[in-house]
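Page header: ASSEMBLY MODEL / three components / 531 residues total.
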Amino acid sequence: MKFTRRETMLMALGATAAAMLPARAMANVDDLVAAFTGGADIGEGGLTLTAPEIAENGNTVPIEVDAPGAVSIMVLATGNPTPGAATFNFGPLSGSQSASTRIRLAKTQNVLAVAKMADGSFVQVSQEVKVTIGGCGG
Amino acid sequence: MADNVKPKVRVPKTASAGEVITIKTLISHPMESGQRKDGDGNLIPRSIINRFTCDFNDQNVIDVTMEPAISTNPYFEFQATVPESGAFAFTWYDDDGSVYTESKDIEVS
Amino acid sequence: MKRTGLLQTAGMIALMTMATAATAQDDSQLVVNGEIEMITDAPAPENIGGLKTIYSGWRFRQSEMQELQMDDFENPAALLFDDAAEAWAAVDGSEGKSCASCHDDVEASMIGVRAVYPKWNETKGEIRTLAQQINDCRTDNMGAEAWKYDGADMTGMEALVSMQSRGMPVNVATDGPVADIWAKGEEIYYTRYGQLELSCANCHEDNYDNYIRADHLSQGQINGFPAFRIKTGKLTQTHNRFKGCIRDTRAETFSPGSDEFVALELYVASRGNGLSVEAPSVRP
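Prediction written out in full:
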């Protein structure tokens, strides 16, 4: 079996991609939280997560996070195959340390938010969102 | 570049100095998660917008790292402090290297 | 004890209702963009026997879903309108015409159109749905190819035209030359189809506001169509919705654009006479 230089390079690229992918796919919730906090203790309070109790469709679930004084807030969909949703980093001109977006939830699960506060401490909050298999037909 | 990517932002036209305003952004993008399969059972490769930033007169308002759990047509709502007249710059970064931008002026009276 | 599938279904619906009564159809009011006030409930039209009050499907949605329809910026369908607006102005076919060649500005010329469709066409002596009228314009006036009845081009154009009537009450004629077609639509509405032996009325008249599994049943009003469905991420046309419903009864369905669905659309549209045109609505 012979390979051209081009094919060899493509294979090398493929191998690199393959080596990187599993790490990404296997990154679980604990790892993601640890990567965000650097292993620091996580407290509670001062962080609000607003999400519906029941989502009529898991494709678009509105969520809002709010943590006055936070530097950044990470949101995880803990029951998704890849739990990462978003990390909001607030700049000097942010008018509040809050943000809203819409996320996908593969099934009923806990949505977890972890905030890094200005003093370097961390707080977290989670909420269960029930995902109904709604919307018949069409 | 994903087809038909169109950014939309809503920013008030005027504000008073130091006022906190609400900004809404929306961009048309499939946000292919990398989890779905096509009709033949093959995995559709991930193709998402992975970062969104909003700056005002070169100072950062918000910088968002985006992951596959963000819904199709990513939507963000957040607040910014407006110290003076100037321009908001919005930037979305696609997995494929494309960059989509939008800007909005605001007048401080 | 003799148990039929239907009884089981009824029992299940009853159970679900008790468990989830807290989220039942509410009395929220729909105002779009802070200016278009929608009529989301009205007295049932006189020729609709099974209902006292008619309700827009919006009233059966959860607040998170409702909010998506209250502001065009948040309505996912709004992202699709640029394409339809381009198509409105695009010359197509042998006559060198676009929609705009005859109808100018869509925002002015199409006001009120959606509210009265399906409608009898006197010249041709036939009933037309809005999609059929659009295709007639394309083939007869523009010399262009007809669009697929429920394709994305057609659904987008239908949404663009419908949107110009937002807030106006649906007012389709049910008498005169369309009386027979309306009666046929009514018959289809009350006919049980499929292995599950369900008619439109079983869910949307007898059991609206109850739950069928996780789905909060509405009256099946079509004043919000084409509707943006979160499930598919696309606009869904009335006939597409009909097809999905009939398929869910495990029946062979009629085709989009068929005489049966045109008759059913006329009848179902008339069940919403008095509700505001809401298209494009947002539904799960």
